[in-house]
């Protein structure tokens, strides 16, 4: 949300630099282990600004040290928005923005790893409406759209969103995907209806915000019940780093600390009901083979890795705010809970060429997820079968498909059994194997989740 300034020979912006490395320096090698929050309803924000270490102490004694809390009193939301737009508006070359997250070899791992863990924690499903808060040049928006999300790219800078539109134009999406929306943010109110979005993604933007309580209220307002807002941010000492001090002093950009209890206190007041934080090793801790085996066996190496992780967690916060307590019902848009039992009986194991093969198929939803109708764009379930020769060599994957119910179909609840009579076209003369499976559209085959396929042998004469 703050003004970016160019950093380094490659022309990476200050804002993009911090979205990728400013605290992203601490994010490579994530191995997230999401933990439920342990905060009670009566939690109060802790005193801010406490830190340790020689670097912070030295800075605190410096005559030109900027106390971020005092610095915030000199800023306004409108000024910060203008600062951000002013930077993007004067850019002559957009290449580094358009190339993200692969604009630089040093920044790419941190960007990709943080993004991957944010995706995991957000529990996304194709077709969800996702706000990319502080989208900048929209690289994350572009990836979310490719994943099948209905994306709303939100930023205070109209020029940044113009770069985002250019990114979509120059890097077309594969397959049919929902068109993104680009929405200019005034820094106060998000111009979206109440309970209109499923998820919010905020990558290294929240620490640039002057009015976090107001923003959290807006996030809570636009999220549906059961919605999640995910954040990847620096830690509680961020404003004291030399880079942050430099940016605040020279560019009047807010580089605030993230005190997680303050965030949680404000989030509860805004209507969020639960917080989860990721525990991870911000940098990969490399081990020898012997140390790795010792680690797996719970030896001393595991304690060293734990200490390594704990020490680095001081400088990174990856957290998720939940609105509402209800767990989303499982359906076939994700692999979790997908399971089926199949029974196949052929009317005859020998057919004449040109005569269809008749099969009686019993399909039981033996999992925990409801199967969506076959007409659903994502997660629609249908019967499928592969054609193989008698040695097991694949001849035609997806040789035949059949809906589970007539017309546009209907949801199939766990425990329900369907009886199908299917007519399968016969291949040329020879002996063959048909392998029956179920598939969830754009999700995967049920056999990928452990369901057993059924094979039958037949002959065409």
Can you describe this structure?
With 461 residues, this protein is of the alpha/beta class. It folds into two domains: 14-322, Rossmann fold (3-Layer(aba) Sandwich); 340-460, Immunoglobulin-like, CATH 2.60.40.10. The protein is built from 13 helices and 17 strands. It has helices at 14-20, 54-61, 68-72, 77-89, 95-99, 108-122, 139-146, 158-170, 212-222, 242-251, 260-270, 289-296, 300-312; strands spanning 33-36, 129-133, 150-155, 181-184, 197-203, 223-234, 274-279, 316-322, 340-346, 350-351, 357-365, 381-389, 394-403, 417-424, 430-440, 444-445, 454-460. The strands form three sheets. Strands 1-7-8-6-5-2-3-4 form an eight-stranded mixed sheet. A hairpin with a 4-residue loop joins strand 12 (381-389) and strand 13. Helix 9 (212-222) crosses helix 11 (260-270) and helix 12 crosses helix 13. The radius of gyration is 27 Å and the shape is elongated. The N and C termini lie far apart (71 Å). Mean pLDDT is 87; it is low at 1-43 and 46-60.
Q: How many β-strands, per DSSP?
A: 17
Q: Any idea of the CATH topology of the largest domain?
A: Rossmann fold
Oligomer: single chain
CATH architecture descriptor name of the largest domain: 3-Layer(aba) Sandwich
> Fraction of residues in helices?
25-40%
Which short descriptors sum up this protein?
Rossmann fold, alpha/beta, 461 residues, six-stranded mixed beta sheet, 17 strands, 28% helix, eight-stranded mixed beta sheet, disordered N terminus, 2 domains, Immunoglobulin-like
């Amino acid at each position: 949300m703050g003004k970016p300034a160019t950093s380094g020979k490659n022309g990476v912006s200050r804002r993009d630099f911090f979205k990728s490395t400013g605290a992203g320096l601490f994010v490579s090698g994530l191995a997230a282990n999401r933990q439920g929050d342990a905060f009670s309803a009566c939690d109060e924000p802790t005193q801010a600004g406490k830190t340790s270490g020689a670097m912070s102490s030295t800075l605190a004694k410096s005559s030109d040290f900027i106390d971020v809390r005092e610095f915030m009193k000199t800023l306004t939301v409108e000024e910060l928005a203008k600062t951000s737009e002013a930077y993007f508006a004067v850019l002559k070359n957009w290449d580094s923005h358009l190339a993200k997250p692969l604009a630089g070899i040093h920044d790419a791992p941190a960007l990709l790893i943080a993004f991957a863990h944010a995706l995991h924690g957000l529990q996304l499903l194709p077709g969800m409406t996702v706000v990319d808060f502080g989208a900048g040049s929209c690289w994350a928006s572009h990836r979310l759209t490719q994943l099948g999300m209905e994306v709303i790219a939100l930023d205070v800078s109209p020029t940044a969103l113009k770069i985002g539109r250019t990114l979509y134009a120059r890097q077309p999406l594969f397959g049919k995907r929902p068109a993104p929306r680009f929405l200019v943010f005034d820094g106060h109110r998000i111009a979206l209806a109440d309970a209109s979005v499923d998820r919010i993604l905020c990558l290294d933007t929240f620490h640039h915000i002057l009015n976090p309580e107001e923003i959290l209220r807006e996030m809570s307002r636009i999220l549906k019940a059961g919605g999640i807002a995910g954040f990847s941010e620096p830690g509680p000492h961020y404003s004291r780093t030399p880079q942050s001090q430099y940016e605040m002093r020279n560019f009047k950009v807010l580089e605030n600390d993230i005190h997680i209890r303050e965030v949680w206190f404000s989030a509860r007041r805004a209507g969020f009901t639960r917080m989860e934080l990721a525990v991870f090793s911000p940098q990969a801790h490399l081990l020898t083979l012997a140390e790795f085996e010792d680690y797996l066996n719970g030896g001393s190496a595991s304690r060293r890795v734990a200490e390594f992780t704990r020490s680095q967690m001081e400088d990174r916060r990856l957290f998720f705010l939940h609105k509402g307590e209800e767990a989303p019902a499982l359906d076939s848009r994700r692999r979790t809970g997908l399971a089926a039992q199949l029974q196949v009986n052929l009317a005859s194991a020998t057919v004449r060429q040109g005569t269809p093969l008749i099969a009686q198929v019993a399909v039981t939803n033996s999992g925990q997820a409801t199967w969506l109708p076959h007409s659903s764009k994502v997660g629609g379930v249908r019967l499928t079968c592969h054609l193989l020769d008698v040695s097991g060599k694949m001849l035609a994957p997806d040789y035949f498909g059949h809906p589970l119910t007539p017309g546009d179909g209907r949801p199939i609840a766990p425990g329900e059994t369907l009886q199908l009579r299917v007519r399968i076209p016969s291949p040329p003369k020879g002996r063959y194997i048909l392998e029956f499976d179920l598939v969830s559209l754009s999700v995967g085959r049920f056999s990928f989740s452990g369901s057993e396929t059924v094979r039958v042998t037949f002959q065409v004469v």
